[in-house]
Design a protein that fits this description.
Keywords: Hydrolase. With about 170 residues, the chain is an alpha+beta fold. About 15% of the residues lie in helices and about 40% in strands. The protein has one domain: Nucleoside Triphosphate Pyrophosphohydrolase (Alpha-Beta Complex). β1 and β2 form a beta hairpin.
C-alpha cells in the first residue's frame, strides 16, 4: 500500500490497514553429544523452567556452520565441531498463537565437543539461561525441552543417527 493510497483512505474516512513487515530469522542450533548425553541449556522462559538446545541467530555473511560454533562457544564455553546437519525446523508464529511477523528457520547440527567437555560456562549466555546440563538421551522425552517437537528426535539419537530431515513448522 503506497502513501498516496493511505492518504486517500484517510480523506474518505476509510479504515487504514496497518501493514506488518515480516522477516525470517535464520539460526543454527547444536545437538552436542558426549557419552550418551546431550548438552542442554536450562532456562526460565515465559514463567516456566525449561531446556533449550544451545545456538542462536545467524549474522549476515556468516555460514551456518560458523554460526553454530560461535553460538555454542558463547553460551557454553565449549568448542565444537559440527559434523552434519540433522534437521531443519521452522517456527511460524501465526500458526502457534504467536506474532504474525515471527518466522524462524533453524538448522540443527550434530556436534561433537573438541577437547574436555567437562568445564562449562560461556561468556555471552542468553538472558533466560540459568545453567547448562549434560542430560542422558533416554531422559529427554520427560523434560520440558522446547520446542517440544524435538524431544523424540533427540532421544532417538541413542539408537543411532537418523537421516537428515525437514521437521516442518513445530513449536
Amino acid at each position: 500500500m503506497n502513501a498516496e493510497h493511505l492518504n486517500l483512505q484517510a480523506r474518505v474516512g476509510a479504515p487504514v490497514a496497518e501493514t506488518v513487515t515480516a522477516t525470517v530469522r535464520n539460526a543454527a542450533k547444536a545437538v552436542v553429544l558426549h557419552d550418551g548425553h546431550v548438552l542442554l541449556q536450562r532456562a526460565h522462559w515465559e514463567g516456566q523452567d525449561c531446556y533449550f538446545l544451545p545456538g542462536g541467530g545467524q549474522h549476515p555473511g556468516e555460514a551456518l556452520g560458523t554460526t553454530v560454533r560461535r553460538e555454542v562457544h558463547e553460551e557454553t564455553g565449549l568448542d565444537v565441531t559440527p559434523e552434519r546437519l540433522l534437521w531443519l525446523r521452522e517456527y511460524i508464529g501465526a500458526h502457534h498463537g504467536g506474532a504474525p511477523e515471527d518466522h524462524r528457520v533453524e538448522a540443527i547440527f550434530l556436534c561433537r565437543p573438541e577437547g574436555d567437555p567437562g568445564p562449562l560456562g560461556g561468556h555471552a549466555e542468553d538472558d533466560v539461561q540459568t545453567g547448562l546440563e549434560w542430560v542422558e538421551l533416554e531422559k529427554v522425552p520427560g523434560l520440558n525441552l522446547l520446542p517440544q517437537g524435538l524431544r523424540g528426535p533427540i532421544a532417538d539419537l541413542a539408537h543411532g543417527e537418523p537421516p537428515t530431515r525437514y521437521l516442518g513448522d513445530i513449536a
